[in-house]
Design a protein that fits this description.
single chain, alpha/beta, Alpha-Beta Plaits, DHBP synthase, Nucleotidyltransferase, domain 5, 22 helices, binds zinc ion, binds fe (iii) ion
Length: 763
């Protein structure tokens, strides 16, 4: 006996468009004897479904519990409505309301189905480098405007052939409404350009590019969100040439191998790491090198880890296809001179990259938005982000608050911006170091693009307290022009807030913040960076901090850890005897000038930076006196740590000051007693971790607070993170670490948003 049919209205929000949701609903409805319709709206997906109650129940359960793979459902509401009779189920035209918004899907790496077709000689897209479907392919990087529809993407110039159109319009097809759908007949094509040679196309272009790589030459390769520079990673000369041309002397290069098995020859891969490598994001994962395998050491000098990724476009797969003699790993570094943003427009790339590359592998599908590769590592079986970009952005972070529209401009290095609306924060993809005009225009264009895509018109602006950051100046001007409120947010407060919201923290009670980084402007004009805070979104107290020391020459000392070491030694009353490594690294005359500069505080800034303390110890041990990339001295110090060493140094606390100067006589004593640098480095790490525990215990005694937020770039030091969290856990503390956004300055804009919202009484 059949029940009386009823009608349910369903509304779903989140990333529900451009991910194959409508055909999925259509097919499910047909299977479950449901009639009615589904359509995209400007706020999500709307379904009206009629059928027998038990069928409807199953239908709703299936939608709720098994949405399409790429969908990200934020809310799901189903309600009974007046019965409507339909004789079939259909997909209806979109209904858009211009003030609402829908999140946009990030770019998605090639899916298993497309990969199978790519290598299937019987398939009509066999070896077609731009194969994609509803579940994979470019999204964010090709979208010019919303709604997400082919005419508003960079695919608008490619008219579909009859076969593609057939697939695009058949709800049962896995390419139904796949906006970038294409085939060799109608879609984008590759070409190979080399000075003085005829341009090659299709298979010939790919073969020529492979031959070039085999010969140890450098290839500029157009990818999803920009250009890469590629070369044979196992070829020392090729890698060296790339370093010289790119002006990147020692910073590690990202690598790509065809599959996990190939990768495993070089690095260890846990299950969690494998899952991330193969995830829809296909991010770069930092992986521990295999013992005794040094074949790729020159790609990442003095590192214990290599940053590796799997091919994420069909073109990558064709380019890296295994064959005897073909490199098992390629360097895949962003196509730019060091410090500039990645090239993404063809005319621009051809001129800018011409001096860097021997040839180009191009295609004619324009990139609208530049997006770098994302970088993560795994800590405690969880994602620990380093750089949030391709595959993650522009997916917004859902927060448990209704936020006003705030534009947060972020910091300077590793800049991101953020725009908030209702329960979402659109945290931008990694923009880069805001130190030149190219990156600044990438920043301003990015803000305009996000505003257009998500219908945003900010009513408040948050900036860093640093008066000279380009992001600060930009925000200040905008606030003046538009006459909207401006919030200047202290850098380390923003780090704390970023970590809190990353952990969904929504209580009013304060949290302990261990906020360690290189540089952040303090409320007293001192450069902070070793801060022990107590507070929340609304306000913080800076309760303890590291000893202040002089930064001779201000920011320029950051490139010169030996100067910082000498500054520490002088402050600690230790003579600059010629047996000391940092002393030896200078000429006599330079030392005299430096000594005068320090004793009279000429052109010196004061800092409490934890990053600088690591730099000083690194130089003192003779590891690194000059750096060629941010964090290098500290990273190399971490990498030599003896993992079994348990002893530590005394780190006294005087009032609100952690007396870091006291470390230096102890380290020198160990050095003079012939203790190995590996052991000294470990004892130094232990001292910082212990100090964190002692301070947290003091906080707990005086306030009862038990939660500890760890944020700031220094927490990319996994040795310190491991030691500190272990100590905290074993003493009953609850450490909060980052999972969705980086601990470094990439998370600052997110923290700024929460603080501004709190000051606007929106939390
Ligand atoms: Zn696919
Ligand atoms: Zn076609
Ligand atoms: Fe910072």
């Amino acid at each position: 006996m059949s029940d009386t049919p009823i009608t349910q209205k369903i509304h779903i929000t989140g990333i529900v468009q451009g991910v194959g949701f409508r055909p999925y609903v259509f097919n499910l409805a047909s299977k479950m004897r449901i009639n009615g319709w589904v359509r995209n709206t400007s706020s999500g997906l709307e379904i009206v479904a009629s059928g027998e109650p038990s069928d409807l129940d199953r239908f709703i359960q299936a939608l709720r519990n098994h949405p399409p793979t790429l969908a990200h459902v934020d809310s799901f509401e189903a309600s009974l409505s007046e019965y409507e009779q339909f004789d079939h189920f259909e997909i209806r035209e979109s209904n858009s309301v211009s003030t609402e918004f829908v999140p946009i899907s990030p770019d998605i790496s090639i899916c298993d189905d497309c990969r199978r077709e790519l290598f299937d000689p019987a398939d009509r897209r066999y070896r077609y480098p731009f194969i994609n479907c509803t579940n994979c392919g470019p999204r964010f990087s090709i979208i010019k405007d919303i709604p997400y529809d082919r005419p508003l993407t960079t695919m608008s110039d490619f008219a579909m052939c009859a076969d593609c159109l057939q697939e695009y319009t058949a709800p049962s097809d896995r390419r139904y409404h796949a906006q970038p759908i294409a085939c060799a007949q109608c879609g984008p094509a590759v070409s190979f350009k080399m000075p003085g040679k005829t341009e090659l196309f299709a298979e010939q272009a790919i073969s020529a590019a492979r031959a070039l790589l085999r010969e140890g030459k450098i290839l500029a390769l157009k990818g999803l969100g920009g250009y890469h520079l590629a070369c044979d990673a196992l070829n020392r000369d090729a890698v060296e040439r790339l370093r010289q041309r790119k002006h990147r002397s020692e910073k590690p290069f990202a690598l790509m191998s065809f599959d996990l098995d190939t990768m495993k020859r070089f690095v260890q891969i846990s299950e969690t790491e494998a899952a991330l490598l193969e995830s829809p994001q296909h991010t770069i994962v930092l992986l521990e090198k295999n013992d005794g395998v040094s074949a790729l050491d020159h790609t990442a000098p003095r590192q214990n880890q290599l940053g590796m990724m799997l091919p994420y476009t069909p073109l990558h797969l064709l380019l890296l296809e295994p064959e005897s003699g073909f490199p098992e790993a390629l360097v895949m570094t962003s196509g730019n001179f060091s410090e500039e943003p990645i090239a993404y427009r063809d005319d621009e790339a051809l001129t800018r990259l011409q001096p860097l590359a021997d040839a180009f592998l191009l295609h004619n599908r324009p990139i609208h938005m530049r997006v770098d590769d994302s970088v993560v590592r795994v800590f405690g079986e969880q994602v620990y982000p380093i750089r949030r970009a391709r595959g993650y952005a522009p997916e917004p972070l859902k927060v448990p608050y209704i936020l006003p529209q705030i534009l947060s401009c972020g910091a300077e290095l590793k800049n991101t911006f953020a725009l908030s609306r209702q329960g979402y924060i659109f945290l931008s993809h990694h923009i880069g170091d805001l130190e030149n005009l190219e990156t600044l225009s990438s920043f301003t264009q990015g803000i305009e693009h996000y505003k257009r895509l998500f219908h945003l018109e900010p009513t408040a602006i948050a900036v860093d307290l640093h008066p000279d950051y380009l992001s600060t100046l930009f925000g200040q001007n905008l606030s003046r022009e538009q006459n909207i409120p401006l919030f200047k947010v202290q850098h380390h407060h923003a780090h704390l807030a970023s970590c809190l919201v990353d952990n969904d923290y929504r209580e009013a009670a304060p949290v302990i913040g261990l906020i360690f980084d290189g540089t952040g402007y303090g409320t007293d004009g001192v450069i902070w960076g070793g801060e022990f805070l107590l507070g929340g979104y609304n306000a913080v107290d800076r309760v303890y901090h590291l000893s202040e020391i002089a930064l001779p020459g201000g920011d320029s000392a950051i490139r010169n850890p030996a100067k910082i070491a000498l500054s520490y030694l002088q402050a600690a009353g230790i003579d600059w005897t010629p047996d000391l490594f940092p002393v030896k690294s200078f000429q006599e005359e330079q030392r005299v000038i430096l000594a005068q500069q320090l004793s009279h505080m000429v052109n010196c800034l004061l800092t409490t930076s934890m990053g600088r303390l690591f730099d000083a110890v690194s130089s003192l041990l003779g590891i690194r006196h000059h750096i060629s990339y941010e964090g290098q001295a500290a990273i190399e110090l971490e990498n030599i740590c003896d993992r079994s060493e348990n002893q530590t140094y005394d780190l006294p606390i005087n009032g609100s000051r952690i007396d870091t100067l006291a470390l230096f006589p102890q380290i020198l004593k160990d050095m003079r007693n012939g203790v190995s640098h590996a052991v000294i480095a470990a004892r130094f790490h232990n001292a910082i971790a212990n100090c964190c525990l002692v301070i947290c215990q003091k906080f707990r005694t005086s306030t009862g607070v038990n939660k500890v937020a760890l944020s700031g770039g220094v927490w990319q030091n996994m040795t310190l993170l491991r030691k500190t969290t272990q100590l905290l856990y074993s003493d009953g503390f609850e450490p909060l670490i980052h999972h969705r956004v980086p601990a470094n300055d990439g998370g600052i804009s997110l923290g700024q948003t929460l603080i501004a919202a709190s000051l606007l009484h929106a939390l």
